[in-house]
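If I may wish for something, please sit down with the protein I am sending here and say whether tokens and residues agree:
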Amino acid sequence: MIFIVVRFTTLPEWTDRWLDLTADFTAATRAEPGNLFFDWSRGVDNPAEFVLVEGFRDDSAGAAHVASEHFEQAVRQLPQALATTPSIISQNIDATDWSEMAEMRVEPAP
């Protein structure tokens, strides 16, 4: 799996509209055949910071994502709302999906 985390910091006038601005991009990416997840979180300490956690099946799925029209449109459209260049971590990992956390188990209700 390609596991990607991207940190975006928005301009103040775009912070409350960021998820609306990225909605079409998010929906199109989630519909890609090789996409495993594409999830946004908002910073607790800095509400202008949004973190995107992405998973793609393999290198070909990741390459198809970057070559897609919706990705190219996001590259053109999103910078207007950003205060800084996004920072990214992208790694190939030996996984196919999320796993349960062994150290914190919740037992099903009886």
